[in-house]
Each structure stands twice: as structure tokens, then as C-alpha cells.
Amino acid sequence: MDAEAIKQSLEDSGLRCTPQRYAVMAFLMKQTRHPTAAEIFEAVNRVDPRSSRATTYNNLRDLVEAGLVREVAVEGRAARFDAKGTRHHHFVCDRCGNVEDMEWFDVPRPASGSLGKRILRECELIFRGLCTKCVARRASR
Q: What pTM was computed for the model?
């Protein structure tokens, strides 16, 4: 995604395109992995040292709330962030914590009675197990 497309996506989502918010979004758009908030702060701060930790974290929250970024919760570890525009599921490695994208497939919606008065927005899956690197390490022991 180029600079104009990032600016437009922010504006279309009702967010002002501040230099700090743009830097966070631009960094995430270039990523093939799923960085933590601390990793994002460090990378953005290398480019623009004026950006504070609080500003970076607040921008991440705003981007998640606007639906431009997904927060991937990893039990017992720092949350990871993903700005990949296509729908996909995630695989989380139990050993190293690596988060990988998995091809999207539709998840059946629960029976309406099981939700009670809740309103379901979407369903996504998080697969958990050992990634290919950890499986290889385990096999070589």
C-alpha cells in the first residue's frame, strides 16, 4: 500500500492522518510477521524519535478500533498486531510464540439460541500448536 492509500484508509476510517499514526500504519503494512506494540514503537521511534510510547500505543488502539489493524491475543505473551487487509486466521506456536497467517475459510455461525442476546460481529479461528521450526527442533533431539 502506498503513502496515498494509507492516508486515504485512515481518513475513510474517520482517523486523522497524523505523522505518528501514519508511521505506525506504514510500518505494519510492510510487515510479513506480527510485531508486538513494543517492536512497533522501537521501529517507528528509529524513524521519528518524536513519537512517544504512549502515542504509539494509543494509535494502535485507534487503528484496531477503526478496523484497520487486528490485535492477535497470544496467551501469556504480548499481543501482536496485523494490518494485512485480507481475511485470514492465525496459527500461534505454543513454544516460540510465533504467529502465522492461515488461509481464510468460513466458520459456521453458532446456533442463534446459543448467543442469547449477544450480537455476533464475526468469527475467526486461532490455531495453536507447534510451528514448523519448533517441530523440526523437536524431531532433531
A: 0.81
